[in-house]
Amino acid sequence: MQKSKYPAARQPKKHAPDKADSIEKQKIKNETEEKLPADNVASAQSGSDLTSACPGSCLSHLPENNNTFSTCILESIADGAFTVNHDFEITSFNRAAEMITGFKREEAIGTKCFNLFGANISKPDCPLKKSIETGKEMVNQKSIIKDIHGDDLKIAINTSVLKDGDQVVIGGVETFRNVSSLGNVRKNIPQKYNFQNIISKNSRIQKIFSTLPTIAKSTSTVLIEGESGSGKELFARAIHTLSSRKGPFVAINCAALPDTLLESELFGYKKGAFTGATKDKLGRFAMAENGTLFLDEIGDISPALQAKLLRVLQEKEYEPLGGTTTLKANVRTIAATNKKLKEQVTKGIFRSDLYFRLNVINIALPPFCKRREDLPLLVQHFIDKFRESQKKNIQAATPAVLKILMQYDFPGNIRELENIIEHCFVMCQDSIIDVGCLPEEIVESTLHTSKADESEANPLSNAEASAIWAALHKFNGHRGKTAAHLNIDKTTLWRKMKKYSIQFAAKKKKRANGNANQENELRI
């Protein structure tokens, strides 16, 4: 007899085999569909409805249609999430819950949650039971469940009741996060969103992810273009890590050093080459032998140094400052810039031959404001990072904090977001980052600051707003396309935009003939 993969202490409820099992699960689905009107699936205690377009128990069939509003909502949550009926039988189970626990959605649907996770629902302190019985939300409750292998998982839980369109309680909803350790928490992020420690679900970044292994196999020079703070060095390191080069990864910021010093740093120097040169010193090219040299802010070097660098890239050889012997360079060069080098070439500021030598392979990184769907993932990533380094038991940020950050421009890109979360860690005296922990200038710069009572919003409420923000941004504020993408009516979209204070300003752009062309532009 094949051994069950469930530990004996928490075997899921056994139904009659085959056909009877299917009938039982279909019964749960039908009961849920009867209670939920098609135009308003569910609203949590705080009054936020998941979707007005998702029929019945579509939440339990999330992958079937990736363009539905419910998919955008539940798949935008980095936390595990599931819903139960009055009998505590699971009616939906999102992908993050699968990643955290190891259980598949098909296994979970129809199983009582306390059987699946090895929890005792009869305990008076069960957060989900408390929410269903009292109608109150339970926030950041600690608990221990069993994963598919029977191992203990320490989790932080948020729970609330689930209501239908007539405000009748039909069950409960629980979101949970693995807080066992930093290593375990990082596993919560689906692998496809975490590539070589670069976290993103943005389609452009995902496309770059798919090309990096191929780029890494070559020895060609790479030019990475992107704004300051957009993660250029991370991509350079990823290329080096994926390559077969045995040498080190050596980085130098070309904008941080004056021209004369930069030359000696790159090529090294011989004893007596200049006053104070009392001994030989290796340059960065020599230090990166058999490895990768990362030249950051390459657009800031002088024309004279550009010519010397061109020779190294073309001939693979150089002379140290004050030396007479030509040295060979077995180095893979990756350059990065926050400038548009092609425009610099047109203006005569940057050498065209060096530009073409560097630009064999081009990687253009979008600014953070163009990949706003990554914000929830990155916020949690930085929370995990600083929780370990600063030894503070901070687990998450409130929906109100995420809402404010979703409205912010981030001129400093991801580096600025990291600094903001670090600031919050210093100021936060609780286990959850609230609006009061944010830098004042961030809150003041947003057009619509969150109200204080929004800090206690239902965990799914913020996901709904985030899904709308991401869709609006994707279609440049076009309401018709946004509503179609979310599979809801334009009037429903308008109502939800009003609910979450999501506004657009009409920007007039003059045509050549003098007529004004109005474009909807997202004001964040």
What does this molecule look like?
The protein is of the alpha/beta class. The strands form 6 sheets. Strands 1, 2, 3, 4, 5 and 6 form a 6-stranded antiparallel β-sheet that branches. Residues 1-21, 31-68, 181-187, 448-457 and 504-524 have low confidence and may be disordered. It has helices at 19-35, 69-75, 95-101, 105-108, 113-117, 127-134, 182-186, 203-217, 232-242, 259-267, 284-287, 303-315, 341-346, 352-358, 375-390, 399-406, 413-427, 440-445, 459-474, 479-486, 490-499, and strands at residues 43-44, 80-84, 90-93, 138-146, 152-163, 169-178, 194-195, 198-199, 222-225, 249-253, 292-296, 317-318, 327-328, 332-337, 361-364, 396-397, 432-433, 504-510, 516-522. The protein is built from 21 helices and 19 strands.
In short:
38% of the residues lie in helices and 18% in strands. It is of the alpha/beta class and 524 residues long. The strands form 6 sheets. Strands 1, 2, 3, 4, 5 and 6 form a 6-stranded antiparallel β-sheet that branches. Strands 10-11-14-9-15 form a 5-stranded parallel β-sheet. A two-stranded antiparallel sheet has the order 7-8.
